[in-house]
Specification:
Spore Coat Polysaccharide Biosynthesis Protein SpsA, Chain A, single chain, seven-stranded mixed beta sheet, two-stranded antiparallel ribbon, dolichyl-phosphate beta-glucosyltransferase activity, transmembrane helix
Length: 356
């Protein structure tokens, strides 16, 4: 006799295994930055997410139902900068500087800096989310800030406990001030000159509410020498994961050729349809972001996946290079991503998680 599970048993299992992100600690709502004199100071983080939640709770208290008072993109506070860069970092003292130097060169040339205390809608910020590092990541970032005069431009947020890349990115995205918000890996594998491609791409798909997403893609490199030289195991796992994506994700997400590239751009108007509903904190978080974009409502908050008009995603080819020192364990992390993908599909598909 075979062993099977009915729907209620699967639902109960998902309730047990589905990730539930912890609330942020008070210290995680502050940041450290340098001062013109070279010292450091701790300041409170601006948080559009908290304002969004407060607005939503006020709406529910008046009507008793969020669905009767749908939260529109206007609920998010206006941008005070043009570009926000979120960099998740865990023990990145050996690789961080190269990435920051390239980012600084591009951002300075493209967006310039806003005078301290003046929000003009131009300029940029860098939010470095230190994901519980135990090396010199923070000290190196602060020294970089002093050297380049990045007072209040480079903001360092430290998570008291390691949350994983997804948790760090989500936390950073809750605090961005830019009209556009991009996250990039700390290793510098992506070239910052390609940020212009993402901005152009997102402008091509943005909807009437100003929502859009653009993702960097390495799919065009599949037949390149760098990929061919990878181990047979790594390439086999890559193709297996892509097959699972096609089977387990909604149509628009399944058509994205590279879901895992750590270079993704969001318009500010898209954020409240994605960030408040994030659950995944490990490597699979990119897929959840894309699924949430696909299921985003047009006018009203939907309850599950696949019932919204969706936020369009532009996939743009970018330059990319292998960088040593990766923390990815190909075998175990691939298995973890497969499990995480199944939980994501089940959690959203069976209503364990809902847009409330």
């Amino acid at each position: 006799m075979g062993i099977g599970f009915n729907t209620s048993e699967i639902y109960a299992l998902l309730l047990l295994v589905a990730p539930v992100p912890r609330p942020p600690y008070p210290s995680e709502k502050t940041y450290i930055t340098t001062t013109p004199s070279g010292t450091t100071e701790t300041k409170p983080l601006t948080c559009w997410y908290d304002s969004w939640v407060a607005h939503r709770e006020a709406s529910v208290s008046k009507s008793g139902s969020a669905a009767q008072n749908p939260i529109r993109t206007g609920a998010i506070e206006p941008a005070t900068l043009e570009m926000s860069l979120v960099v998740p970092a865990y023990n990145e003292e050996a690789r961080l500087i190269g990435m920051l130097e390239e980012a600084l060169s591009f951002l300075d040339a493209t967006y310039g800096r806003v005078a301290r205390g003046k929000g003009t809608g131009t300029g940029y910020e860098i939010l470095l989310v230190n994901d519980g590092s135990c090396d010199g990541t923070v000290e190196i970032a602060l020294e970089f800030s002093r050297k380049h005069g990045l007072h209040d431009v480079l903001r360092i947020v430290t998570l008291e406990e390691n949350r994983g890349k997804g948790g760090a990115v989500t936390h950073g995205m809750r605090h961005v001030r830019g009209e556009y918000a991009v996250f990039a890996d700390a290793d510098g594998a992506s070239r910052f000159a390609d940020l212009g491609k993402l901005v152009k791409g997102v402008k091509e798909v943005v909807d009437e509410e100003g929502r859009g997403v653009a993702v960097g893609s390495r799919a065009w490199l599949v037949g390149s020498e760098a990929v061919v030289k990878r181990s047979a195991l790594r390439n086999a796992l890559m193709h297996s994961f892509h097959l699972l994506l096609r089977l387990l994700t909604p149509p628009a997400t399944s058509r994205i050729r590279d879901t895992q590239c750590g270079f993704k751009l969001f318009t500010r108007a898209a954020l409240p349809h994605i960030i408040p509903y994030m659950h995944a904190e490990g490597w699979i978080f990119d897929v959840e972001m894309l699924m949430l974009a696909e299921s985003a409502p047009g006018v009203e908050d939907g309850e599950g996946m696949g019932n919204g008009k969706g936020i369009k995603v532009s996939e743009q080819p970018i330059a990319w290079q292998e960088v040593g020192g990766s923390k990815l364990n190909v075998m175990w992390d691939s298995l973890g991503m497969a499990w995480g993908l199944a939980v994501l599909r089940g959690g959203w598909g069976m209503g364990v998680w809902r847009r409330r």
